[in-house]
Amino acid sequence: MSDQEKKEVSRRDLFTKIGMMLNGLAVVILATPVVGYLLSPVLGGDRGQYKRWITLGELDEFPEGQTRLAKFQNPIAGVSDGETDHIPCWVRRIQGEQFQVFAINCAHLGCPVRWFAQSGLFMCPCHGGVYYQDGSRASGPPPRGLFEYQYKVEGGKLMIEAGQLPTLSTTASLGARKSGCQG
Amino acid sequence: MPRLKSIADWFEQRLQIGRAVNEALTHPIPRKSASWWYVFGSAALTLFILQVFTGILLALIYVPSAAEAWNSLQFLNHGVTLGWFLRAVHGWGSNFMVAVVLIHLCQVFLFGAYKFPRELTWVVGVFLLLMTLGMAFTGQVLRFDQDAYWGLGIGASITSRVPFLGGPLVHLLLGGPIIAGTTLSRFFALHVFLIPGLLIALVSLHLLLVLKLGINEWPMPGRVVRRSTYVKEYQEMTHKDGLPFVPAAIWKDMFFSAAIIVSVMACAWFFGPFGPTGYPDPTIVQTIPKPDFFFLWLYAMLALLPPSVETPALLIGPVIVIGFLILLPFLSGEGEKSWRRRPVAVVTLLLVVVALGTFTQLATYSPWSPIMNAWSGDPVPVEYLNGRSPLERQGALVFQVKQCRNCHSIGGSGGKRGPALDKVATKLNHDQLVRQVIQGGGNMPAYGKNLNPAEVTALVSFLETLRPSNQPAARDASQAVLTEKERNRPPANGR
């Protein structure tokens, strides 16, 4: 009798284990698309896919020797973005076709820097970061100068390569200074 | 009445939880624990229920879309009957909840309640604190205004400092390459589904542990916790000299919870809802983002940490703090519970409270931020111009126009980023002023490229007038000694 009981129990045991394994398998199969879905912001943005060349404006909108606020529509936009995909930047036309296009975001923590033409400084309202007119750090907590967009002049228009929020680690693919891409 | 009883019996016959509920309600607690010091946990729970309740009501109107959220908040404020009040209750409820949870943490820490056998209760509590803060931050994001937008930028910038994984993590946080619609959607999911779900689960676990292990006894100096004897001692304490939770202690919980709810409603009624501030359009750069009250300390620390230690402090600091909180009951699971016998614990807590309080207080007026419109908004005090030469007055003009005022105050108004300049001439002489203006230094930008020599001359001559009449101007002592010697030296052809 005891033998038979053991047998029955182990049979149920086996089915329980198989049941657990089947469910485990189902979870793994389900998890794959879930993980892919969750990681889509990362996988979609790899290798500079977020960057596009976009037009900022005609050259004569930017007088020589001045720094002006320009706005552009982010090349990657969603259906529910509202105004949030309208991105500002500071355009400094040094002379001729020589430009510097700075991100609005302070290199410290991303707050919007403001340009003061009289003193030739960018000041950040959050933690007091200050930059010179060429974007280099003047004082305060920023660890580096302002982020710069790649630019080119084509057909009398100023174009920049943009598409993602510049931060300390997303700047390289944006400004592409380190990776050696050229504008 | 008999009908009510028969209905109750009908349910009881099926549910069979009456006895368990009764046991839970009347579980014995130590006599001295029926104290006003033990009301904060239940108040936090009450506030959480209030937040869930008002949150659901707000969700009837709120639209979690970057294009619509701000407008739906305006509609709640102005277009829906008492919508403003519900927003205010939810906002103030959030502040009260963070405050009460923090007070609860301090009380439990001071009373040594995390010691054996309540280690797990404490650890779960640490996660409840983190989730409460998470709710406060994600809630601030849902109030999708300029503060929320740039607050997300700050969050992304902090995340970007993680080595190697920074970039992908930023995109994961934002749900895309920029702060936009998908960002708000994921913070909505966090705030409304994920974190509240976890909170409900962990609050239940927290409460279950309190019931299973019993409420912490009032700590007495000399009554030492030992793993081998504690459970027996606690049983004796509660059974020989204990009181049933209902009704001995619960009335205090109920009184305090009611007082808290009334306070939240009073704040909501008199102070109104929080924001929303400006429309979340990043091209409006004339904005001064600021976090909500309970993140002001962080805002201050981010301004005051030296740049070189900022990244390690941001990334390692939280790990150390949270790690310490989680490990605390395992490092000090036995021993004295009374704060009278735990001076290190008391001093540590005081230090943390004073530091966070100071940072918060500093952040309310953020002296490290330039005042962006001081140069055009604050006039030079008249007495600083009276009887001055044309050159000095020209210097005052340079002082204003070159935005010096944004960082330096005179006459009590202007930025506090740099030192006030009302007495600068008593500290720096002419040459030092010229050098400071042109070369900067000590956290001041160099103005050499943006001031011509005439402007520097005018500015410095104005700055040299900035001293009280009863204090002498700064002078170069070594130079004075030299000129003195020069004067006393007999002429070379003296003979």
How would you portray this structure in words?
The complex is a heterodimer of chains A (183) and B (495). With 183 residues, chain A is of the alpha+beta class. Chain A folds into two domains: 2-38; 48-175, Rieske Iron-sulfur Protein. In chain A, 25% of the residues lie in helices and 31% in strands. Chain A has three helices and ten strands. Chain A has helices spanning 2-38, 40-43, 171-175; strands spanning 52-58, 66-73, 86-95, 98-103, 114-116, 121-123, 130-132, 137-139, 148-154, 157-162. In chain A, the strands form two sheets. A six-stranded antiparallel β-sheet of chain A has the order 1-10-9-4-3-2. Chain A has a four-stranded antiparallel β-sheet with strand order 5-6-7-8, with no helix packed on it. In chain A, a hairpin with a 2-residue loop joins strand 9 and strand 10 (157-162). Chain A is elongated, with a radius of gyration of 27 Å. Chain A starts with a helix and ends in an 8-residue tail after the last helix. Mean pLDDT of chain A is 86; it is low at 172-183. In chain B, the strands form two sheets. A two-stranded antiparallel sheet of chain B has the order 1-3. Chain B has a two-stranded antiparallel ribbon with strand order 2-4. With 495 residues, chain B is mostly helical. Chain B is elongated. Chain B folds into two domains: 27-365, Up-down Bundle (Cytochrome Bc1 Complex, Chain C), CATH 1.20.810.10; 374-480, Cytochrome Bc1 Complex, Chain D, domain 2. In chain B, helix 5 (83-110) packs antiparallel against helix 6 and helix 13 (296-304) crosses helix 15. The mean pLDDT of chain B is 93. In chain B, 37% of the residues are buried. Chain B is built from 21 helices and four strands. Chain B is 62% helix and 2% strand. At the A-B interface, strand 3 of A face helix 7, helix 8, helix 9, helix 13 and helix 14 of B.
